[in-house]
Design a protein that fits this description.
- The structure is a single chain.
- By secondary structure, this protein is mainly alpha-helical.
- The protein has helices at about 10-20, 25-35, 35-50, 75-85, 90-100, 140-150, 200-210, 215-240, 245-260, 265-275, 275-285, and strands at about 65-70, 70-75, 115-120, 135-140, 175-180, 185-190.
- Strands 1-2 form a two-stranded antiparallel ribbon. A two-stranded antiparallel ribbon has the order 3-4.
- Strand 1 and strand 2 form a beta hairpin.
């Protein structure tokens, strides 16, 4: 996961832009009547997110045509995102601003895909009052957005990581690792191994995030493609620098990647290759 800065001072602005872009006067007025409910919900969200307790919010099981708050239905609240934030010119600028904040355009949830859409950390189908809350909207790639769907951890341990709030220890310490499986060509398996010093709930959350976004399989695919181009380069490197050069080169790559992102697939990938005697001696051929 990649750290992201919390969107500053936007909840009321985004909400007002969405409501203001509603063409139907009756619906717009009904939304204005419950505006404070959205504001109150945003305050509660932030307080809970800061102490990793978003799971304590009750899931809404109403149908879209049922009244959610005031005289506004659940479906009408959800549509603030679908038809106003996403599609209306005045509100869309906020959508684009949040999306553009993705670090180097990369999805912060996996660190692999291109951020192409916004993911509702707490699904709007279950938590409609957070539909257009910037704190709940995370830039994401298509795989992360569609893979998670409407899943949400219903206890502290099963919550996936939140790029705006879950920084330490999930960004500052390494917990994603890999190992080399002897095969032709070599296979890389990725796994979670959180430090022993971590709280049990943090270990479980790291694993929940890793599983929810199917990172083991996705990272292995990335590694396989990287290996296909790396092997030829290593053979040429050895011919000029000697047999010990493979481990030296891979170790240098691992050090560089770890300095950039402790839990990127590339950091774990190069670490695993450098630590494996079989690969460094002949597995790269």
């Amino acid at each position: 996961m990649r750290e992201m800065k919390i969107p500053v001072g936007m909840p009321a602005e985004v909400l007002d832009a969405c409501i203001g872009s509603i063409g139907n006067e009756d619906l717009r007025n009904r939304m204005l009547e419950v505006r404070q409910n959205f504001i109150d919900a945003s305050v509660s969200y932030r307080k809970s997110a800061e102490i990793a307790q978003l799971y304590t919010f009750l899931v809404n099981h109403q149908k879209d045509e049922e009244i959610l708050v005031g005289n506004v239905t659940k479906g009408e609240v959800k549509n603030l995102y679908t038809y106003n934030l996403v599609k209306k010119i005045g509100a869309r600028s906020y959508y684009d601003s949040i999306l553009a904040a993705a670090p180097r355009g990369i999805c912060p949830l996996c660190g692999v895909g291109m951020a192409a859409t916004l993911d509702h950390y707490m699904p709007k189908a279950k938590f409609p009052l957070f539909s257009v809350l910037p704190l709940n909207l995370v830039p994401a790639c298509r795989d992360c957005n569609t893979g998670k769907l409407a899943e949400f951890g219903e206890d502290k341990e099963s919550q996936s990581l939140h790029p705006y709030f879950d920084i330490s220890p999930f960004v500052t310490e390494q917990w994603i690792f890999a190992e080399v499986l002897i095969s032709s060509p070599a296979t890389i398996r990725f796994f979670v191994s959180a430090p022993d010093t971590w709280l049990r709930e943090n270990k479980e959350r790291a694993k929940a995030h890793f599983d929810a976004f199917k990172l083991a399989a996705r990272f292995s695919i990335m590694a396989a493609n990287e290996l296909s181009s790396l092997t030829g380069m290593l053979a040429d490197y050895v011919s000029h620098s000697g047999p010990g050069a493979v481990r030296e080169f891979l170790t240098a790559c691992a050090t560089t990647e770890l300095a950039l992102h402790k839990n990127s697939w590339r950091a774990a990938f190069f670490q695993a290759l450098a630590a494996n005697d079989w690969f460094c001696e002949k597995g790269y051929l």
